[in-house]
Design brief:
- Helices cover 29% and strands 37% of the residues.
- By secondary structure, it is an alpha+beta fold.
Length: 172
């Protein structure tokens, strides 16, 4: 079984895995449009975390993890709790450069109809929320910084994340 992460799962999977591969999914774009009241914010003052939006010509880079079938059910149960703030399970095809694609990888996506959806805003508004939000998993700005670092390390291009990271570093 494979699990694909495009947010905090890239740098903090927090589950046992046999292998990991950096790769991308097609037709999706990462956006800081999901509210977080259980990890990077609190009720009444949600932080912003990533989800995916459909974008037919885009690629979203992330990390795919292969997990042992013997522990897969428990890993998924734990991820269901971790991603309970508006995310639902889907399956995607992950493209891994120079290797066969991974079919049917599990992914969690928050869609607009979920109760924590914040949606689009200007980059400055998004960064203002990220810079000031804190939740049980820590400061929201660390989520953005760590995601940008991880994407750069894997050689991935993500204009949305990198624009927000640059604005945060500039103190906007």
């Amino acid at each position: 079984m494979w699990i694909f992460g495009y947010g905090s799962l890239i740098w903090r999977p927090a589950f046992e895995h046999l292998d990991h591969q950096d790769g991308y999914i097609e037709g999706w774009s990462r956006r800081f449009w999901q509210g977080s009241t259980d990890h990077r914010g609190v009720p009444g003052a949600p932080g912003r975390v990533v989800t995916l939006i459909r974008a037919p010509t885009e690629r979203c880079w992330g990390r795919a993890y292969r997990v042992d079938e013997a522990v897969a059910r428990q890993i998924v149960a734990n991820l269901d709790v971790r991603e309970q703030g508006g995310y639902s399970q889907h399956h995607v095809k992950v493209h891994v450069p120079g290797q066969p694609s991974i079919e049917g990888a599990l992914i969690y996506i928050a869609e607009p109809q979920n109760p924590h959806w914040l949606g689009d805003a200007s980059a400055a508004e998004i960064v203002k929320t990220i810079a000031t939000s804190v939740g049980p998993s820590g400061p929201n700005d660390q989520y953005l910084v760590r995601l940008a670092q991880a994407l750069r390390q894997m050689g991935a291009d993500d204009p949305h994340v990198f624009e927000l990271d640059a604005l945060l570093r500039a103190g906007v």
